[in-house]
Amino acid sequence: MPASQPMVQIFLSYAHADTERLDAFLTHLDPVRRSEGFTIWDDRRLRAGEMWDEGIRKAVRESDIFICLVTNRFLASTYIRGSELPAILQAENRGALVLPVILEHSHWDQIFAERQCVPSTKRGELRPIVNWRPRNDGYHAASVQIARSITDYVETEPAPIPSPGPSLIATPDGFEITDDTPSAAALQDRSGRDHSRSGWKRKRPVRKLGTCGARDEWARGS
């Protein structure tokens, strides 16, 4: 990733019963992470005593890319289907990239039928990782295909610019805090793009390569 690009955070969504598979996937994704310079967040980064739901929602808000490890347990999770996945899909509406990784045969198409999932064979056919021989080939194929999508996404879409906060204005009595934000013209002059609306305006559509969400019932059910 070019030095001028801000750090990209990837949110990894999975079911806790699939932790072993998560670790196998991360092993194959780590070289990509090192070369591209992005960070990976999963719920094991929550600190002791931290409110898990708010911690997850905060990570979703701060993430640019979402990788979902889709299994039957993932799809059966009440928390994932009811809270985490809707938040991820909402992030997609603001320009985030959502990538589903199909680990096993499941009803993944109920949610992600319109998205290109990984890993796929050289013929372009989706093949769940459980069907690859050796299985490591499936994890490797998924990591390679995801790396291409991430590179394309980062090079195509700049990270959103945060909305400006309160500023100080001079008054006869000193300084006063104001919530006034710069005009649309001023915002456009700074970056060459229109940031006057909430979010940011894409000049080109992002190629969608998948979608998934995952958070199983941990201290919350399963």
UniProtKB/TrEMBL annotation:
Keywords: Receptor. The keyword Nuclease does not apply. Residues 174-206 are annotated as: Disordered. InterPro entries: TIR_dom (IPR000157), Toll_tir_struct_dom_sf (IPR035897). SUPFAM superfamilies: Toll/Interleukin receptor TIR domain (SSF52200). Residues 6-150 form the TIR domain. It comes from the Bacteria. SMART domains: TIR (SM00255). The keyword Lipid metabolism does not apply. This is Toll/interleukin-1 receptor domain-containing protein. It comes from Jiella sonneratiae. The lineage of its organism: Bacteria, Pseudomonadati, Pseudomonadota, Alphaproteobacteria, Hyphomicrobiales.
